Amino acid sequence: MLRADAAAAAPEEAARTARSDARRRQILAAAVPLLERRGSQEVGMQAIAAEAGVSVGLIYRYFSGKQELVQAVTVGVLDEMARLVSQAIAPEVDPVRQIAGAFTAYCTVVRENRQAVLLTYRESNTLPAEGRALLKELATRSVAPLREAVEAAVDGGRLRPIPVDVFLYDLVTVAHSWALKHWYFSPRVSFEEFVAAQRALLLSAVIPPAHRTEYADLLADLA
Amino acid sequence: MLRADAAAAAPEEAARTARSDARRRQILAAAVPLLERRGSQEVGMQAIAAEAGVSVGLIYRYFSGKQELVQAVTVGVLDEMARLVSQAIAPEVDPVRQIAGAFTAYCTVVRENRQAVLLTYRESNTLPAEGRALLKELATRSVAPLREAVEAAVDGGRLRPIPVDVFLYDLVTVAHSWALKHWYFSPRVSFEEFVAAQRALLLSAVIPPAHRTEYADLLADLA
Amino acid sequence: MLRADAAAAAPEEAARTARSDARRRQILAAAVPLLERRGSQEVGMQAIAAEAGVSVGLIYRYFSGKQELVQAVTVGVLDEMARLVSQAIAPEVDPVRQIAGAFTAYCTVVRENRQAVLLTYRESNTLPAEGRALLKELATRSVAPLREAVEAAVDGGRLRPIPVDVFLYDLVTVAHSWALKHWYFSPRVSFEEFVAAQRALLLSAVIPPAHRTEYADLLADLA
Amino acid sequence: MLRADAAAAAPEEAARTARSDARRRQILAAAVPLLERRGSQEVGMQAIAAEAGVSVGLIYRYFSGKQELVQAVTVGVLDEMARLVSQAIAPEVDPVRQIAGAFTAYCTVVRENRQAVLLTYRESNTLPAEGRALLKELATRSVAPLREAVEAAVDGGRLRPIPVDVFLYDLVTVAHSWALKHWYFSPRVSFEEFVAAQRALLLSAVIPPAHRTEYADLLADLA
DNA sequence: AATGAATGAGTGTTCATTCAT
DNA sequence: TATGAATGAACACTCATTCAT
């Protein structure tokens, strides 16, 4: 009996945790589009509850308050994007092609999560110090694979000896600019043109003359 | 009498307008640092009135509401930055050097108005469509001189035939990234290193081999 | 079968009642210190459930709502105090000494249940009419033994012909004042001094000159 | 002009303070009966605002929050009672008659402010430490005149050498008991009987035999 | 032109109570 | 019998906006 109970306890606990996680996800899933569209300021807890199909009180069982919910949404959105990017990176041998692929993947993820990108830029200012630190760490962690590729390329002489930190964040910032300056880019260039042009521009800046022919396909889009 | 009045009316009117403008500026000047530091959400009208040394009611004589005030602050901040940049651009003959100079100027203005840059990114999402359009127009207008330089350089063959729109906003976005990613860059590179590296990177991407020796000084920082 | 069931029913019923009573007591025991310390207002049902080690829902099986629970706690506390007092009263032959003993006992119980006394004063205002009536009845009943002693003493001529009702509640009120005005008395007199002084004062007021020497020991503390 | 302005400034300020005070009083006056009847717990800010004929927001201009308002009401009620008592005390030469008069006055004030007395007992438990300290100080200050009379009587040998602190608060507690135990006393004795009996009882306890004939009128009610 | 007292709809949050399991 | 997730009305409090002076 006792053993059976003990044996049963674990699955019971697990089931509870699973249900609890499902609720959290349900609430977050409802909050994400609202916060993306209108910002944490404009969206009330009642609206989030209504969208999630739960009562206001229930949200407070899963999140200590609005701030924590907004932070969870923001972190979740960044996490998801990092996951999508890492999924999308093809396992290339050539580090330069890996960089190119990662940048393309990043841009694609940005295009498909434009509102989410804007949300992270917008809400990161409203987060408390702790949440901000979490976001920074997440950002740093999610560019790690890209950083390795850049470092490998530089070490292997396939990229000029550039300041890695600077180039790395240029890749990210430029990818983000499809969301940040969407009003500007979208009427002027197609997404594909944007990616091709940016990729060619950024790589042109760092591929040394000796390897330009090797990567001619990547640089072609600049003419 | 009537004539005297009419004669007096113009100067009177002018004086009134002048006083009115002074009031607007007084209120805006008080609002700017508050909004930069804490965001429009966190700052109340009462706080702005107190900071400006006027009553709440008076603000409503000069602005139709909080939204308009925030918009005026945002526009004002962008205007001021555009002014500072255009002031800082030396009248160079060489369009490439003009681009380099403008980028450096832009970065310096960003450094000295970091909070203002963040404010524009933050608040532009809270603005109504109309205000957003105004901001876009302003942004477009304020890069116009830079665009001319880039176009001239491309036309003169000193820059590769790149998509001008893309390169132009890369310059702006990268300059902004000193503010947007300050938490990342500032512990890793000094502002001078940042500017030199970015300038070299961006120009490397676009200066054709034929002119690389001519601009060796600008490209030096990449080794 | 039916008979066996019927035969078993009585003990089963009894066992159930016993378990049920134990539950009630368990919940009340958990609620008492919480309500004493923080008041019914500040204490939530969830907190009481947690303290009792049961679920919130279970409390509603044993009490119809918070109000009833608070009432049960209040009544319980008064009951317990009445019990302690009646226990502490030594079976004296002399009614005056019985009064003195009962007063001393009352004071001691008040000292050891100061928070409980405050609770009854505090919560009796929040109770519904019905609960209030119950409390009054309880209070009346619990002073009954004391009333008998006073009446006996008056009838026997050992106390002056005073209005019994008034004197009776003065005894109670003064005993309570150790709790009600604890902030005042405690830094000024010790508990023992308080009891001796009050006892002497109250008895002085009612013992006729003819019996003063007989009770000199009880009156000593005033002079 | 400047002088006129300066001259006008003071009255203006004074007028503002006067209006502000009137508002405070208006809100307090509305809050008192509500809090007396139903307790701070049961009374919402909206109800107080409605009763006062002002908006909720306005209350927050004059009180930092509900707690402060409740404290102000409680203090105000105690203050008013202290004022009424001190007004009612006739300037007697004889300190014993002064005590008797003060006690009678106290009882009368309690009778006419029964709910207020209950309110102070009830709410003093919900107040923060600071507010509680204020109440204690107020209570101490408001019995000061009575204390002087008691001390004078003891020093002059018209009262037995009793512990002043104890007797003083017995007077107060017994007077309060008309409110605290109103449910008990009121069906049993009239207010006048109550006062006469209590006065006689308390004075009997402390007037030495030597002066009993002198104050026979005060002691008469005990028979 | 200027004030600031006054408004009241709206906010985030709590908690007694219910009910499916 | 026992659970605790779920509810939602109610709360204290805020703040953009108005308007009598």
Query: What count of structural domains of chain A?
Result: 2
Largest interface in this structure:
A-B, 43 and 42 residues
> Sheet with the most strands of chain A?
none
Proportion of residues in helical segments of chain A? over 70%
Mean pLDDT of chain A: 91
Number of helices of chain A: 12
Task: Let me know the CATH homologous superfamily of the largest domain in chain A.
Answer: Tetracycline Repressor, domain 2
CATH architecture of the largest domain in chain A: Orthogonal Bundle
Show unreliable segments of chain A.
1-7
What is the 3D form of chain A?
A: elongated
Order of helices and strands of chain A: HHHHHHHHHHHH
Q: Which CATH class of the largest domain in chain A applies here?
A: Mainly Alpha
Through-space gap between termini of chain A: 77 Å
Oligomer: homotetramer
- The CATH topology name of the largest domain in chain A reads Tetracycline Repressor, domain 2
Instruction: Please give the number of β-strands of chain A.
Output: 0
> Helix/strand-derived class of chain A?
mainly alpha
Report strand % of chain A: under 5%
Taking all Cα atoms into account, the compactness measure Rg of chain A is 22 Å
